[in-house]
Amino acid sequence: MSEPIVQNIVRLGMPWQTLDPFMFCVHHNDQYPAGDEEMGPDASLAGRMLGNDFSGRDGWSMYHGRKVPGFPRHPHCGFETITIARNGYIDHSDSLGAAARFGQGDVQWMTAGKGVVHSEMFPLVNRDEPNPTELFQIWLNLPREDKKKDAHFKMLWHETVPRKTVRDAEGRATEMVVIAGGVDGLEPPSPPPASWASRDESDIAIWTLKMEPGAEWTVPAASPEANRVIYFFAGDTCTLGGQTVERGHGAQVRADADCSIVNGDVEGEFLVLQGRPIGEPVAQHGPFVANTRGEIRQAMIDYQRTGFGGWPWDEDAPVHPREKGRFAIHVDGREETPADLD
């Protein structure tokens, strides 16, 4: 008897469970109200545990923000963050002097390497209408030889992120968005140079799928060494590899076999994470990732001593001017906007 396509199904928690080489995945989907003068919520914050508000009250959280929702300055080292901003905006500022505002389908891919401090704030730029904000943040590990590389970030503006709508035999549509790993003729922009994803043998794939009711699409086979998880985060029910899966679950499936997805009776959305394991020991303490506990201790000492470059901003939670559009300023001072792609 052949091995089943679906190997394990887990309920999605906070964060979602991941497999090597991924370390973490979280889905934020906040229905923020109109913004006030400071780009925070134009609503009462009474009753929220400001500085640590994950309550979801009224459909949104402040997270670690006190005026503007988001995550004020905090360190990372030894891995990468991939932030897929599906709706709303994120204001980035970091210890190397880089900054950005991105959203509406943009992706920021940041290699923390030997260490960086950054903030990720969610400015509510609309004063007269709601500010829905939705994003994925995915943590991708780095192999030992790359954990001490310089920090680096790259913007994948939504204009450069390939997407395609395909139809099954009944004409039902599946929209694919391809952040990493080519599929069905779509080739995404290259990841940062020190990324595990920059190696062909890593077989990294990061895709989102939006499927009409009843639509069918097949995830193609990949390396037998890769881990593959399909997260079903919006919809009702579906079948994966012939097995029924309910919304709010992730399914580990064989990577070396085609896996059919048949959506249920309402529109469904999926995130696919795939990659060959790095296969090295992992030691983690919060946002510090290394191979040994001794390396974790050294990283914490380095952070206390150097601040991973210091903090060149006047606030722990800086936001950019309301009227500022999507942009990025890199460590070398180079500024880019999506308009530069024309």
TrEMBL record:
<keyword id="KW-0479">Metal-binding</keyword>
<feature type="binding site">
    <location>
        <position position="118"/>
    </location>
    <ligand>
        <name>Fe cation</name>
    </ligand>
</feature>
<dbReference type="Pfam" id="PF02678">
    <property type="entry name" value="Pirin"/>
</dbReference>
<feature type="domain" description="Pirin C-terminal">
    <location>
        <begin position="207"/>
        <end position="309"/>
    </location>
</feature>
<dbReference type="InterPro" id="IPR012093">
    <property type="entry name" value="Pirin"/>
</dbReference>
<dbReference type="GO" id="GO:0046872">
    <property type="term" value="F:metal ion binding"/>
</dbReference>
<dbReference type="InterPro" id="IPR011051">
    <property type="entry name" value="RmlC_Cupin_sf"/>
</dbReference>
<feature type="binding site">
    <location>
        <position position="76"/>
    </location>
    <ligand>
        <name>Fe cation</name>
    </ligand>
</feature>
<dbReference type="Pfam" id="PF05726">
    <property type="entry name" value="Pirin_C"/>
</dbReference>
<dbReference type="InterPro" id="IPR014710">
    <property type="entry name" value="RmlC-like_jellyroll"/>
</dbReference>
<dbReference type="InterPro" id="IPR003829">
    <property type="entry name" value="Pirin_N_dom"/>
</dbReference>
<protein>
    <submittedName>
        <fullName>Pirin family protein</fullName>
    </submittedName>
</protein>
<keyword id="KW-0408">Iron</keyword>
<feature type="binding site">
    <location>
        <position position="120"/>
    </location>
    <ligand>
        <name>Fe cation</name>
    </ligand>
</feature>
<comment type="similarity">
    <text>Belongs to the pirin family.</text>
</comment>
<dbReference type="InterPro" id="IPR008778">
    <property type="entry name" value="Pirin_C_dom"/>
</dbReference>
<feature type="domain" description="Pirin N-terminal">
    <location>
        <begin position="67"/>
        <end position="140"/>
    </location>
</feature>
<feature type="binding site">
    <location>
        <position position="74"/>
    </location>
    <ligand>
        <name>Fe cation</name>
    </ligand>
</feature>
